[in-house]
Amino acid sequence: MNRTDTVGSGRSFRVPGRLVPAVLGGFLLVYFAFPFLSFLSRTGTANVAARLSTPEAQAAIRNSLLTAPVSTAVATVFGVPLAYLLARASFVGKRLVEGIVVLPLVLPPVVGGAMLLTAVGRFTPVGRVAAAAGVPLTGSLLGVVLAQTFVAAPFVVITARAGFGSVDERLEQASRSLGYGPLATFWNVSLPLARGAILAGITLTFARAIGEFGATMMVAYNPRTIPTRIWIDFISGGIDTVVPLALALLAITLAVITAVQRFGRIPTVVDG
């Protein structure tokens, strides 16, 4: 809707109703894009191919590509059922459960890593038992998975819950009236109808997991992942030394998001 304002001697001008949101949003968009473009401009000063071919960089990329999909799978397997429960059930303590799910999102990742250390560190009962069994929970790829899952899993839970909440419960009731049990109804009705939101949550979870630094640094500084390797390179060599691995991380994330959006048909910010 357009608004007409009168100025001076009856002269009027029309202000498009979306002009103010566009201007305000444009400032934020520029704020997002400017650092990104500035960073890309540094690629000419960095020998990208040579730095990515070093054993340290390749090990970091390999570790990230091993752990992030595992963390995403764990978050999905356990998070989607939890999301459905929160969307459909009412029970005592539900608010507490919702708060626990959101907690890793509001905590600084370093604090989340410290909390994990108090639970599964090598000097804790759980950590000692695991280490004695030959499965250390810190300073290992498993420790990386634990850190990534802790900080990234809420994304799939929250997004999938919104998807399940948008499914008409009457469709589920119709399925139950036809003789299908709760699991069959969930698998054949609820899950397909919430598929877009779930895929969006999985994508966000993967992107968050592969870029996780703070909690990972606390729980498993070794073996290196891409973010921890970037930090080490920055400390030792400055901003130009982190460009190659940062570009690799960006490329991996964009490739996954593009593939899921293309083949999974998840909603995007530009959908009407």
Automatic annotation (TrEMBL):
Pfam families linked: BPD_transp_1 (PF00528)
GO cellular component, one term: plasma membrane
Membrane-protein topology: Multi-pass membrane protein
Domain ABC transmembrane type-1: 61-260
Keyword Lyase: no
Transmembrane stretches, start-end: 20-40, 60-87, 99-121, 141-164, 185-210, 230-257
Keywords: Cell membrane, Membrane, Molybdenum, Transmembrane, Transmembrane helix, Transport
Keyword presence, Transmembrane helix: yes
Location relative to the cell: Cell membrane
Family statement drawn from the similarity comment of this UniProt entry: Belongs to the binding-protein-dependent transport system permease family.
Protein name: ABC transporter permease
Organism listed in the record: Halobellus rarus
